[in-house]
């Protein structure tokens, strides 16, 4: 009887049942000499950092909540080359809490010199 009451309580009260959301993030960075397609990575919760590698570069991404319906993707990219290293705080993307994608391009006169693209997919578990 006690188990039946607990089961009904969990089903009847939203938020008490165990459910979680994870996020699949895909990132690419293109410039004049390279096209970095980082492997997709999983963030099992908000405010978790995950790092992936593409060649001599690595990307660390974190999703945080900006408001009830908006998430923010924070990213950092660092590369180690023969001639030195580079570190960059990537532009932040505001994304719907249902997922989404975006891209930022920089260049002159119709020529893209740098492009940063992201895609965030939501997985309800």
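-> sequence recovered:
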């Amino acid at each position: 009887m006690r188990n039946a009451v607990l089961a009904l309580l969990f089903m009847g009260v939203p938020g008490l049942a165990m459910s979680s959301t994870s996020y699949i993030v895909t990132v690419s960075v293109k410039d004049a000499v390279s096209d970095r397609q980082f492997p997709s990575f999983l963030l099992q919760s908000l405010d978790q950092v995950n790092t992936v590698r593409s060649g001599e570069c690595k990307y660390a991404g974190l999703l945080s909540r900006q408001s009830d319906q908006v998430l923010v993707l924070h990213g950092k990219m660092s590369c180690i080359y023969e001639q030195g290293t580079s570190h960059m705080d990537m532009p932040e993307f505001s994304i719907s809490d249902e997922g989404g994608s975006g891209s930022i391009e920089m260049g002159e006169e119709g020529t893209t010199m740098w492009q940063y693209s992201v895609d965030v997919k939501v997985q309800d578990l």
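Helices lie at 2-12.
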